[in-house]
């Protein structure tokens, strides 16, 4: 199992897909990195030579923000928005959708799947004994 940027990359997957297991690397960035390293995207991760793994490590760690550094930057950006009192900062602090989505319905994922109304509210009459 090759290890790049502190993440174990799965052996059985194509390297193009396996690089996306690293936080901060998606499909397009993995293709760009592989083209720069001159590694075939069709290769499986287990078929990579040690030199290829080292070149991938060097390119990823030197040129791109990934994992801890990227997460830290995102957290500081959100904290800055909260401190200056912006609209987006208020939305972040209230755990509501930030990018203009409606909240009367369809914000279940952000609000934690809250379902407050159950049925019509009428209690059923007790049945015969």
TrEMBL record:
Transmembrane segments: none annotated. GO terms for cellular component: cytosol; small ribosomal subunit. Gene3D superfamilies: 1.10.8.50, 30s ribosomal protein s13, domain 2 (4.10.910.10). One of its GO terms (biological process) is translation. InterPro entries: Rbsml_uS13_C, Ribosomal_uS13, Ribosomal_uS13-like_H2TH, Ribosomal_uS13_bac-type, Ribosomal_uS13_CS. The keyword Ribonucleoprotein applies. The keyword NAD does not apply. Pfam families: Ribosomal_S13 (PF00416). It comes from the Bacteria. Keywords: Ribonucleoprotein, Ribosomal protein, RNA-binding, rRNA-binding, tRNA-binding. Residues 89-129 are annotated as: Disordered. Located at the top of the head of the 30S subunit, it contacts several helices of the 16S rRNA. In the 70S ribosome it contacts the 23S rRNA (bridge B1a) and protein L5 of the 50S subunit (bridge B1b), connecting the 2 subunits; these bridges are implicated in subunit movement. Contacts the tRNAs in the A and P-sites. PANTHER family: 30S RIBOSOMAL PROTEIN S13/40S RIBOSOMAL PROTEIN S18, SMALL RIBOSOMAL SUBUNIT PROTEIN US13M. Part of the 30S ribosomal subunit. Forms a loose heterodimer with protein S19. Forms two bridges to the 50S subunit in the 70S ribosome. Belongs to the universal ribosomal protein uS13 family. This is Small ribosomal subunit protein uS13. The gene is rpsM.
């Amino acid at each position: 199992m090759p290890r790049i940027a502190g993440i174990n990359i799965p052996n059985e997957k194509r390297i193009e897909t396996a690089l996306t297991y690293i936080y901060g690397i998606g499909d397009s960035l993995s293709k760009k990195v592989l083209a720069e390293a001159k590694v075939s995207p069709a290769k499986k991760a287990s078929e990579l030579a040690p030199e290829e793994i080292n070149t991938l490590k060097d390119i990823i760690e030197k040129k791109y923000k990934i994992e801890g550094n990227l997460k830290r930057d995102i957290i500081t950006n959100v904290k800055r928005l909260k401190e200056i009192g912006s609209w987006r900062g208020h939305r972040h602090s209230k755990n509501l959708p930030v990018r203009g989505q409606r909240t009367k319905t369809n914000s279940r994922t952000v609000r934690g799947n809250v379902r407050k109304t159950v049925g019509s509210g009428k209690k059923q009459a007790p049945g015969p004994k």
